[in-house]
Specification:
33% of the residues lie in helices and 16% in strands. It contains 13 helices and 12 strands. Strands 3-2-1-4-5-6 form a 6-stranded parallel sheet, with helices on both faces. A 6-stranded parallel sheet has the order 9-8-7-10-11-12, with helices on both faces.
Length: 350
């Protein structure tokens, strides 16, 4: 049996964004089922290795640190190639489409290199796959990377959080209230983001119910705005963890909260990987391609002719987002939290 059909080792180059790395995570289960005894290695940009820190199906994680500038990128590549050369690698699966990632695998001595073609990198691959046209969920696109060996229905993304991490998250929240986590940010641009003033209005509406508390999650980018917002919310009913969690700590919080409201973002995919309820707000992007996988009922979207446009910024006032009002989203959250209780009329209009 050849190393191609039953490799001793397989390295998977994971995408560089949190959401994409989560959507590529079913490759771990698929590879493990295909080759139970193969040494499975992931290659991740720091700090994305945290997503898979508790996954016992993964034997080893190779990390690299992103560097800026021409010299930085050269040094980053040399570091990555050096790490790849530390052991024989039979098969490499590229969940990234960059030229440099294929170059790393080639220079790193990976014997069989499988990925999508194009961008001038076909000669670096031993198996160059055609990129299927038309809307296709990223989970399914990543799953097709295994098509040279198997044609299986894609698995849903899944992540592993330990009991100790969930306990720590509950201690951080502090009590047994119904906790709604809100993530107001998103990478790529403002066109993916519901307006901050709408998030504040949503928090006010939800906090009308004394059983609910709010926890804000995300990086430090929006921390000053959320800190100001908290001063206008009811005392001791809102907790900001903006910029105050590691990736693993964020995963613990998203695992234990009762509900989650978010833009199309990495944390959205983390929450969906746990199979937990959420409301995912979509504007410029397409939920068919990047929505919570097999959880389309979680998507909130206002159809407008120009959506999805995939722009970073909107030149016409972001109607796809502004037409989803805080009352609409609050009602969805409350229906999920209290499915058998009639919705009461909110004291705040909008």
């Amino acid at each position: 049996m050849s190393y191609y059909s039953h490799p001793f080792s397989c390295v998977v180059r994971m995408p560089n964004w949190i959401g994409d790395a989560v959507m590529a995570s079913p490759l771990i289960r698929a590879v493990r089922l295909l080759w139970p005894d193969t040494r499975l290695i992931l290659m991740c940009q720091e700090p994305l290795e945290g997503l898979f820190a508790r996954d016992e199906r993964v034997d080893h994680v190779v990390t690299f640190q992103r560097k800026k500038g021409v010299l930085g990128r050269v040094l980053m590549g040399r570091e990555a190639i050096f790490k790849l050369r530390q052991e024989p690698l039979d098969v490499g699966i590229l969940a990234t489409r960059s030229w440099s990632s294929a170059w790393w695998f080639w220079q790193g001595g990976v014997r069989k290199r499988i990925g999508y073609g194009g961008r001038g990198r076909d000669w670096l691959l031993t198996t160059s796959l055609p990129l299927e046209k038309g809307p296709l969920h990223h989970v399914e696109r990543y799953a097709q990377l295994l098509s040279p060996w198997t044609a299986t229905t894609p698995f849903s993304p899944s992540l592993i959080v330990g009991e100790d991490e969930m306990l720590q998250a509950r201690k951080r929240l502090g009590d047994s209230s119904l906790w709604v986590a809100i993530h107001p940010g998103a990478a790529y641009g403002s066109a993916k983001c519901w307006p901050l003033k709408y998030y504040e209005k949503l928090a006010h509406l939800l906090l009308e119910d004394r059983r609910i508390k709010i926890v804000w999650v995300g990086d430090r980018t929006l921390k000053p705005a959320i800190d100001l917002m908290e001063q206008r919310l009811p005392s001791f009913r809102s907790l900001s963890l903006m910029g105050a969690t590691t990736l693993r700590e964020l995963m613990g919080v998203l695992k234990v909260v009762d509900m989650f409201v978010t833009n199309d973002s990495g944390p959205m995919h983390i929450r969906a990987a746990f199979g937990k309820p959420l409301v995912a707000l979509f504007g410029s992007t397409d939920p068919i391609e990047t929505g919570p996988y097999r959880m389309q009922e979680s998507v909130a979207r206002h159809p407008v002719p120009c959506s999805p446009c995939f722009r970073r910024t909107c030149p016409i006032g972001l109607p796809c987002m502004y037409n989803m009002t805080p009352v609409m989203i609050a009602d969805r959250v409350l229906r999920e939290l209290f499915p058998y209780t009639p919705l009461r009329r909110h004291s705040h209009a909008l």
